[in-house]
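Duplicate of #3305? Posting structure anyway:
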């Protein structure tokens, strides 16, 4: 079967091969025919080594498709069922799950060290234990979440990561207060979803911050009240908050420099929400006096900061009701053979989300 493979960490292009085989099928597993998958910035971060991932590997974790085989002992799933791929399934038994913090369950991460694929030359891993830039993938049954028949595969794929992460950061993690002021730094698919979440929660002012003009224009269509380039954020802070700072600032880039800017843009007593996934050797510096004196809350948001299955259901309900726009997040579509075109669209900022149709 075909799959897009990164041979070595640091390479900037994928090779689409037709000699890849999905492996590991057996009890507790399902085989999924992937129909659509989104290109998430985390895929690029894994390719360049910002996020740890063994290679060679098949990127992709934001996917949807249909089940074509079910292993022994799997209940509630059947051949032909339409599913989205959950890259961080909850085991239900670990301390995090028992506390109700299922987004912190580590069971899914354990799969990242087990090869999902093989080629004549050896094993191939799947990113985050999945790897959806492929025609078929074998995953734990918990990674296959049924979706209603009225949800298209491309919409379901986005809900599998970017939408859930962005919406959840505003709704679950920050719990944005009605009438508040918000700034969102980084307006790709996740940042736009955070903007939609803040709008749903009733934020009065939502400032979108991004260096790419087309993304700023898009942010206004999705609910931002103002959109500025990074060098305009200081002026927006002065004009809109009299220099005090925003009630909530979302960092959706994953870099210490932008996190520091976000901290400085947050008012005293306000909330900085860290949504972007950054590198282990990129350190955010805060002095102990400002940390104490400013009393700013710093809230990381892992996968939207809440129960992912409930978050999926909420996103579908909001989409059905017309309260969030998911179709317009997909600005580009390419076949699997055009995966490197999709990578370029992300790196240049041309795309909010590119859907790879398989």
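Output from current build:
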């Amino acid at each position: 079967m075909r799959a897009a493979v990164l041979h070595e960490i640091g390479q900037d292009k994928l090779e689409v091969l037709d000699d890849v085989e999905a492996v590991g099928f057996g009890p507790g597993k399902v085989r999924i025919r992937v129909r659509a998958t989104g290109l998430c910035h985390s895929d690029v971060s894994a390719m360049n080594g910002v996020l740890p991932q063994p290679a060679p590997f098949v990127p992709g974790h934001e996917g949807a498709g249909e089940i074509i085989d079910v292993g022994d002992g799997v209940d509630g799933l059947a051949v032909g069922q339409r599913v989205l791929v959950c890259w961080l399934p909850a085991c239900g038994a670990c301390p995090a799950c028992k506390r109700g913090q299922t987004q912190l369950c580590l069971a899914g991460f354990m799969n990242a060290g087990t090869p999902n694929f093989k080629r004549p030359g050896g094993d191939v891993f799947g990113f985050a234990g999945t790897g959806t830039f492929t025609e078929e993938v074998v995953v734990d049954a918990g990674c296959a979440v049924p979706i209603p028949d009225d949800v298209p595969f491309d919409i379901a794929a986005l809900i599998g990561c970017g939408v859930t992460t962005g919406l959840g950061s505003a709704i679950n993690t920050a719990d944005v207060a009605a009438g508040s002021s918000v700034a969102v730094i980084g307006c790709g698919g996740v940042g736009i979803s955070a903007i939609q979440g803040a709008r749903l929660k009733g934020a009065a002012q939502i400032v979108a911050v991004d260096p790419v003009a087309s993304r700023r224009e898009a942010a206004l269509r999705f609910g931002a009240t103002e959109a500025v380039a990074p060098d305009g954020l200081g002026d927006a802070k002065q004009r809109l908050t009299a220099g005090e700072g925003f009630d909530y600032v979302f960092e959706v880039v994953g870099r210490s420099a932008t996190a520091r800017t976000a901290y400085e843009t947050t008012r005293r007593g306000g909330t900085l929400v860290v949504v972007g996934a950054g590198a282990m050797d990129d350190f955010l510096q805060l002095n102990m006096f400002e940390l104490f004196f400013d009393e700013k809350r710093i809230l990381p948001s892992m996968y939207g900061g809440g129960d992912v299955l409930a978050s999926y259901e909420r996103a579908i309900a909001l989409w059905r009701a017309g309260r969030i726009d998911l179709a317009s997040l997909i600005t580009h579509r390419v076949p699997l053979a055009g995966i490197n075109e999709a990578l370029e669209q992300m790196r240049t900022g041309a795309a909010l989300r590119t859907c790879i149709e398989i």
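Confirmed duplicate; merging threads. The mean pLDDT is 96. The chain is about 30% helix and 25% strand.
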